Amino acid sequence: MSALVGQGLTDIDSLALAVRDPESKRLVGEALSAYRGGALRSAIVSTWIAVDYDIIAKAKELSAHGDAAATTFVQDIECAIQSRDVKKMQAIESVVLTTANEKLQLFAPHEFEDLSRLQKDRHLCAHPAFASEDALFQPTPELVRTHITHALKHLLVNAPLQGKSAIERFHADLLSPSFPVDEESIGTFVRAKYLDRAKDVMVVNLIKSLLSAPFGREAAQYMGQRHQVARTLREIAKAKTAIYDETAKDHVARKFDAIPDALLLSISAFVECDTRLWEWSPEPTRIRFRRLLQDADAETLKKHSAFDAFAIPELASILVGRFESFEQDVQIGIISQIPRREFITQAIRIYGDASGWRAAEQRGRVLMIPLAPLMNADDVRVMLEAVQENDQIWGASGTSAILETVFDATRSLLAQSRPHWQAFINARMLSSRDASSHYAYPALQQRLAASED
Asked: What is the pLDDT of residues 255-313, one digit of tens each?
C-alpha cells in the first residue's frame, strides 16, 4: 500500500490507530478490511458509517462541555430514537454532514467538500437504483483509499476542538485561576489540550482571537491578563510557527489600526513577546502609539504595561524620556511595580542618594530587591559601591538583610561578581575592625565563604 503523508503519520494504518473513539476505530477498521478484501462498495459504506457515528459522538462530547448547538443536535437525535421516528432519524442523517459543518463547525471548507464526496459515493454504493444499469457505480481502489484517508484525517483522529465553542473554551481556560503562568507549562498545556489534534483552521481562529480579545468589547476581562495572553500567543507561535507567522502578520496589518486610543498602549505586552508585531503594524497605528506614549502619565503607562515597549529601540528613547520626567517618588513607584533592566542605573542612583537609615532601608527593599534578578555583575559592583560610600545605607540596621537577599538572587553571577562582594566585605571589616560586628555583615561573610565550597 502506498504511503500516505499527513499530520506526522506515514500510512493509513497509523492514521487508523490514532482514531480517538473506540467505536469509530472499530468501524473504520471494518472499512479497511473490506477495502483490503476487494469489497470496495462495502468499504465506502463502512467509511460513511464511521463518519456518521463519529460526528454524533463528537456532538455529545461538545454538548457535555456546554456547546448549545451540539446540545440541540443531540437532543433531536435522542428524541427521534425514543419516539422511534424513523423519518426524523433519516432526515437527521441526511443533513448530518451539513450540521457538523455549519452548526458544530468541525470542518474547514475543503474538508467538508471531501466528506461530501464520500457521502455522495456512499449513496451510489448503498442505492444502486440511483444509477442506470449501464452506469453502475464502480469505485476504484484509489478512490476508496482516498475516502478512508479523508475520513481519518478530517474527522476521526481529531478531537472536537474546532469552531467557536473551542475558542470559547480556550479563553475560559486562559482566564481561569488554574491556567499555568510559566512559559514551559503554558506550552505543555496548550499543546496537549488544544494544538496537538487541532486543525489548521482552528489554530488560525485561535491566533486571531488572542490578538483581538484584549482590544475589543471584552477588553476589561483581559486588563490584568495581557502578559498571560501574550505569553500564550508566543507558545502557540513556537508550536505552529508557519500558521502563526502568516496569520498574525495579516491580522495585525488589517486590524490593529482599529484599536481605540484608550486601549492602543496595551499592545505593548504583545510587542515585547514578538517585536515583529510592531513591524507588521500599519504606520498610522505606530504614529498614534508614539503620540500616546509621549503624552501618557505614569499611571496610564503602568495600567497598560507600556514599559514593555522598551523592546522596540525607537520606543525605548521615548520611554526613557517619560520616566526621567517624573518626580523621584513616581520613579520609585514605577520601578517597584515594574522592575526592568532599563531602570537599574537610575534605581542605584536613587538608592545611593538615601539621606536617612529608614529611607535607605525602604529604597533597598523596593528598588534593589525587585531588580536583583535582572542585575549583571557590574550592576552588583555599582550597587555595593553606592552602599559603601553612604553611611546612611551601610549604617542602616536593615541593609544587611537587603544585601543578603540581593546576594541570593544573584548567585548565578558569582563567578564574575565574587570580587565585588569580597571587596565590599573587606572594606566593611576594615572599617569595623571587628569581623563579628553587625556593620561587618557577618551573615554576608558566611554566605560568601560557603559559596566557595
From this structure: 999 999 999 999 999 999 999 999 999 999 999 999 999 999 999 999 999 999 999 99
Query: All 3 cell numbers of residue 336?
Result: 517597584
Name residue 372's beta-bridge partners: none
Distant-in-sequence, close-in-space partners of 304: CB < 8 Å, separation ≥ 6: 263, 265, 266, 268, 296
The predicted model scores a pTM of 0.69
- Grid coordinates representing 172 are 475560559
Q: CB neighbours (10 Å) of residue 40?
A: 20
- pLDDT digits 0-9 by tens, 10-65: 479 889 998 989 999 999 999 999 999 999 999 999 999 999 999 999 999 888 87
